[in-house]
Amino acid sequence: MKGPLDIPTARRRYVTVCALFWLPLGLSIAPLILLLTERGMTTAAIAGLFAAHSLTAAALELPTGGLADVLGRRVVLVAAGLLNLTALALVGLGSAPWLLGLGMVLMGAGRALSSGPAEAWYVDTVHADSGPGADLRTGLAAGSSATSAVLAAGTLLGGALPWLLGLGPDLGARLSEASSGLVLPLSVPLLLGSAVEIAFVLYVLTALPEPPRAPVALRDVLRGIPATVVGGLRLGGRDTLVRRVFLSAGAVGSALVTIELLMPGRAAAVTGASESGAVLFAALACAGFICSGLGSRFAPLTGRLAGSGERAVMVSLGVGAGGLLLLGATAGATGAGALVLSAIGYGLLYLGLGVAGPNENDILHRRVASTGRATGLSVQSLVMQLVGALIGLVVGVLRPGPVPWLLGGCVLLAGALLWLRRSEPASPSPVARPQPPVACPSPASQDATARS
Questions:
Q1: Which of 193, 378, 406, 415 could be disulfide-bonded to 328 (CB atoms 3.0-4.6 Å)?
Q2: Do residues 295 and 351 lie in contact, with contact meaning Cβ atoms separated by under 8 Å?
Q3: How far is CA 382 from CA 22, 140, 295, 296, in A?
Q4: Residues paired with 368 in a beta bridge
């Protein structure tokens, strides 16, 4: 029987999985809202579709994290890929509201399934090869950088494809006519993303080996999920650092939703038209992903220079909060100087978030045992989505101007201030998981060691 993968190979495969999974999302960022509008959906209906996606992802975060800890990382990742493949095809081809709604719900389910297993697989593999003291930040940073890079490239490609298809004489019309109206130029990036999901599923099946797990009946899995969920919720209650990681995730969610809600309108106001504003927003989103990727690459260096991962998180979140507050300070200003300061603030926000992510997750992996690794990541994602949704509702009802921006900046600054006090080291916190009725624990379940 082959031994565990060496660290460079595991890192390379983890980076590839991150890239293949997030490229389809990047392809859909620019055309999605325009496609839904082209299908006849109103703004309120589109908001409802996005709410269905977010609520589905939030509702399934902890149960699906528990599934990854019980059934294995690979099978859950494959399920996520298949759900996203179906979702992108439905949204790309569907015209009926119920089909579009089903697609967004499936996309939310895929997002929930994917929010921990790949990273948990990488950490498990590194620990199996080199023990719990092995460096994780380098691999986590590489995965974050790859995610940012493919999101940036996908955003540009997804925005350019429909425009390029429209350059030919009546090409878009002929494409729509040949497919009986199912395929519009705006549909093409989503369908391309669906094809990428096929490659993702095949790669996961062939490139992510796992130690054998004892067979578990479906009823035992379902019966054990509540205990895993409760254990995940207790993680933050008994470990100060884990609680700070979760609360910081909520602060990051508030910052991201502030940008997502306010930046498109601000870009349109700068250019004077919604169409050109959409192009500017796509360029800004690409620049943001690049800054986030650069931040992720510098995450290990920042941790070393700051003296600890905790201080690195505090500094990087503070930088991000400064960027968002700068955007708020220039919200009502005009002129070239204000635009330059706004661009600097936008870059600082994403740079700070990029540095913070790998350092936060490094802390989380050191504090949570292997049996709860994916569950802990799911709790982190759940808090980010729920706090982001709450702040988004508040931002949405505030009058346009500096105040909504400043609200998001202040919440992110509060997340940075959580890390002012250092915590005493503690042993990793396990998460209760259902045990199979027969057989001995798998090798992975024996690894109740500290996170790197």
A1: 406
A2: yes
A3: 18, 20, 23, 22
A4: 429
Task: Output the pLDDT for position 449.
Answer: 26
**Per-residue tokens: 330:** 């220039």
In this predicted structure, the answer to whether residue 165 has a pLDDT above a threshold of 60 is yes
Return d(Cα 123, Cα 139) in angstroms, integer.
9
Exposure on the CB side of residue 324, measured as CA atoms within 13 A: 33
pLDDT digits (tens, 9 = 90+) for 81-121: 999 999 999 999 888 889 999 999 999 899 888 877 888 88
Please give the pLDDT value at position 431.
Answer: 42
CA distance 50 to 100: 10
Compute the distance between CA of residue 117 and CA of residue 105 in angstroms, rounded to an integer: 20
CA gap 430, 444 in Å, rounded: 13
Q: Residue 37 — pLDDT band, cuts 50, 70, 90?
A: confident
Q: Pick the closest to residue 127 from 449, 378, 446 (CA basis).
A: 449
pTM to 2 decimal places = 0.67
* Identity of the amino acid at 3: G
pLDDT computed for residue 100 by the predictor: 92
Highest mean predicted confidence (pLDDT) among 136-150, 198-212, 390-404, 413-427: 198-212
In this predicted model, what pLDDT tens digit does every residue of 255-276 receive, in sequence order? 988 887 777 777 767 777 555 5
Quick one: DSSP state of residue 398? S
- With tokens 């979140």, the residue in question is 317
Reference 326, options 240, 413, 393; nearest CA is 413
Phi, psi (rounded to 5 degrees) for 368:
-120, 135
Query: Which residues, other chains included, contact 34 with Cβ-Cβ below 8 Å and sequence gap of 6+?
Result: 162, 186, 278
In the three-class reduction of DSSP (H, G, I as helix; E, B as strand; rest coil), residue 236 is classed as: helix
Place of tokens 């109103």: 42
Which strand (E) or helix (H) includes residue 20? Answer: helix 7-29
What span, in angstroms and rounded, lies between the C-alpha atoms of 293 and 282? 17
The number of beta carbons lying within 10 Å of the beta carbon of residue 430 is: 14
Domains in the chain, CATH or no CATH each: 1-216 (1.20.1250.20), 231-426 (1.20.1250.20)
Q: Where are the beta strands (DSSP E) in 34-160?
A: none
DSSP classification of residue 372: G
Mean pLDDT of 344-351: 92
